[in-house]
Amino acid sequence: MLVLNWANGRSILSVNPILASGSRAPAFTLPSSDGGKLRLTEHRGRWVILHFYVKDNTRFCARALAGFSKLNDEFEKERAVVFAIGPCNQKSHTQFAKKCSVPFPLLSDHDNRIAHKYGVWREKKGDGREYLGIVRSTLILDPVGNVVRVFDNVRLKGHPEKVLTALRAELAK
């Protein structure tokens, strides 16, 4: 059954169709804004926050990354690393990270392969048309690489704080 969620005149699938709590997070290696490549499996043993965003140099994505940037020290205190994944190329990510003073890597998923694997590349409807795009989402992965929380179709206001609160709740278990 397809469940649609209406937001800002657009409807999107409201539940991640591929990953849920308890799922194994798909491994990946992606180009990073720091100029190298980042391999997810190299971060086993730490909590991982994966934030999927739509595009560099947009107001909403800059605000979302600013929120995570502001709380980056708090995530690090909880032994968590933050990575943001978007479809733009490595050069664009490097410029965007510098412009927005992002202290964590922006990862380039230029062919949306990882977005597909994580279930965040989905059909959207809006402005009288249907199209495929990234549904802004954040996942919390535990130290062994399992998904423990999925924030799907997130709203920006207070979102990084909600992720930090959820992480702390997981750590308290």
Describe the structure concisely.
This protein has 173 residues and is α+β, with helices and mostly antiparallel strands.
Description:
- The structure is a single chain.
- The chain has about 170 residues and is an alpha+beta fold.
- It has a single domain (about 25-170), classed as Glutaredoxin (3-Layer(aba) Sandwich), CATH 3.40.30.
- Helices cover about 25% and strands about 30% of the residues.
- It has a 5-stranded mixed sheet with strand order 7-6-5-10-11.
- A hairpin with a 2-residue loop joins strand 1 and strand 2 (about 10-15).
- It is globular and about 45 Å long.
- Residues about 1-15 have low confidence and may be disordered.
With helices defined by DSSP (H or I, 4 residues minimum), what is the helix count? 5
Our Rg estimate from Cα atoms comes to: 15 Å
Give the end-to-end Cα distance, rounded to a whole number of Å.
33 Å
Strand element count = 11
| Estimated share of beta-strand residues | 25-35%
| Number of structural units classed as domains | 1
Strand order of the largest sheet: 7-6-5-10-11
CATH topology: Glutaredoxin
Instruction: Kindly report the name of the CATH homologous superfamily.
Output: Glutaredoxin
Chart the SSEs and their pairings.
Layout: E1 4-7, E2 10-13, E3 29-31, E4 37-39, E5 47-52, H1 59-70, H2 72-77, E6 80-86, H3 90-99, E7 106-108, H4 113-117, E8 121-126, E9 129-134, E10 137-141, E11 147-151, H5 159-172
Parallel strand pairs: 5-6, 6-7
Antiparallel strand pairs: 1-2, 2-8, 3-4, 5-10, 8-9, 10-11
